[in-house]
Amino acid sequence: MKDLNFNHKLFDEIKILNNCASTISSAEKLIKNGEMKGNFLILAETQTRGKGRQHNFWFSPSGGIWLTAAFYNLNVIASITLFTGIVLHKILLKLFPQIAAYLKLKWPNDLFFQDKKLGGILTKSLPAFSYHLIGIGINTNFNHFPPELENNAISLQNILQKKIENETLITYFFDRFAEELPLFIENGLDKNYYQKYAYLKNKQVILTTDFDVFQGKMIGIKKDGAILLKMASGMIQPFYAGSVEKIL
To answer: Is the domain 13-195 a CATH 3.40.50.2300 member?
Structure first.
């Protein structure tokens, strides 16, 4: 990443860092300090404290894609995380069609390949500054994970046994993101696409929310991004936030 010469029409400025705690924290600090204006992108070679949901740690060695896109005055809706996942999924299938049968979208923010995490998305709104942050991590050009992650994570290099052109992947992603964003803002999610590739489809899951723990069968999502669970009573219940801690 340190040798990357990247630019894109979406961004007024792009900062490439050798190392940072996390790109989303770096972007937030730049905004709060008044150091950035307009849309900007942070790319990092490595992260020492990469972030997942619920403050989970994201292993972020050299070779992967670790970035945060900061959008000013984006007319964003709650399901931007799922929309970003759909766009990323489409680009990965475009570049690597051989993985289509195994690449899935796990609600609300992960991409899975054969039951292992390949990528993730973390979004954050800063309404006081009119910014919305979209953090993306993709395991691309490295082979080894810490022992505690070996059974739960995978990289594109593991899968394809070749070097991934990170710049090409990032460029294609933001091209498609810019193309599809207006339609998403107008019409909401393409829930049919999501359902086609949903990792949790028809699985019994345990969903942990801030209020309680729920169990049900995942039958789909709503256009606003809520997961739909069929409960034991037969009632179909939407959930707008939470983490799937267990698949039964």
So the answer is: no
